[in-house]
Amino acid sequence: MTLRGGRGRYEWERWCAVETVLDRARAGDDRAFGELTDPFLGELRLHCYRMLGSLQDAEDVMQETLLAAWRGLSGFEERSSVRTWLYRIATNRCLNALRASARKQWPAPSGPSWAAEPTRWGEPLRLSPYPDALLDEVPDLGAGPEGRYEAKETIALAFVAAVQRLPPRQRAVLVLRDVLGYRSAEVADMLSVSEASVNSALQRARATMARSWPGPGRERAPLPRSARERDVAARFAAAFASRDVDGVVALLTDDAWFTMPPVTLEYQGPVAIAAFLRSIAAWHGPRRYRLIPARANGQPAYGL
After folding, report:
1. Which structural domain range is residue 153 located in?
2. CATH code for position 250
């Protein structure tokens, strides 16, 4: 082998270092295993969350992924990077979890009897927020050259909710291709399917996302942590806490949706949302609420 230039030497030394750590891990050294996997834990957790829509489920699948990786080290043939190998395991564990969840037939929670008539009845969707503090553990949210979405879009709650409406296989293909930037051939290898199958699933997934994910013409939200965002968030919290329905509604865009997963009631637009908020106020009487500022999914959030 002939190495030319500093870059080639660097890559060779890096490869040798990984090989040494891998050999130690295969010999049962759990610290070496941590050296191999720790750099990817943050992004793998986020990947599982995008797939499952639940931080708790993502944590559970992460544990399964690490256990499977530890047990499968001897079978790792190094045809791909450690990162890609871990994504393969995590993705297939997510698909297993989704199949198991589908077999459970979760009952759809009925809406409260006092609620105003919804705009529509949606499908039961189990969705939880992703704390921004965990995003700090992800070194680079950017996609590869095959990526389709901007990094900040792919952590937004609305994006994750839209992904949850895809069938499991389409969900996996879309996230691996359009969020993480893997090539179709790589995704086919991860999922043990043909490349044609991947491209077909991707086409269907993109069509569904185009119908459910806001387009580029949508009104842009304030920049994260900007003075305008802080002002809007503070006004919302004050209006909600003081039961000022008109004040809350005045902050909404015309295409705003109000949902409470997994309850299937969905309200669109200021008029419908105002009707629901007033029905809450009438039912709960003098009860008071306080909103505690937080951040989740790259957006302002509150503890109630």
Report:
1. 140-213
2. 3.10.450.50
Q: Is the peptide bond preceding residue 262 cis, with omega within 30 degrees of 0? A: yes
Helices within the chain (DSSP H only): 5-26, 30-37, 41-52, 55-71, 82-104, 132-135, 151-154, 157-164, 168-174, 184-191, 195-212, 227-241, 245-249, 269-284
| Neighbour tally for 58: CB within 10 Å | 24
CA–CA dist 87, 137 (Å, integer): 17
Query: Is 172 in contact with 91 (CB distance < 8 Å)?
Result: yes
Domain count of the fold of the chain: 3
Predicted pLDDT at 208:
95
- Given 213, 239, 272, the domain boundary residue is 213
Position 193 in a domain: yes
| Tokens representing residue 236 in the block | 């919302």
Instruction: Provide the whole-model pTM.
Output: 0.84
Both tokens assigned to 159:
């994006």
In the chain the first and final C-alpha atoms are separated, in Å, by 62
- Tokens in use for 82? 């450690």
Among the ranges given (212-221, 237-246, 267-276), the one the predictor scored with the smallest mean pLDDT? 212-221
Domain match, 183 and 95 both:
no
Torsion over CA: 235, 237, 243, 249 (sign): positive
Instruction: Answer yes or no: are the C-beta atoms of 283 and 277 closer than 8 Å.
Output: no
- Pair (154, 238) in one structural domain: no
What's the average model confidence in pLDDT over 47-59? 96
pLDDT: which is higher, 244 or 286: 244
Burial 223-248 (b: 16+ CB within 10 A, else e): eeeeeeeeeebeebbebbeebebeeb
Q: What are the φ and ψ backbone dihedral angles of 224, each rounded to 5 degrees? A: -55, 135
Does residue 118 fall inside a structural domain? no
Q: What is the pLDDT of residues 133-155, one digit of tens each?
A: 998 878 765 566 777 888 888 99
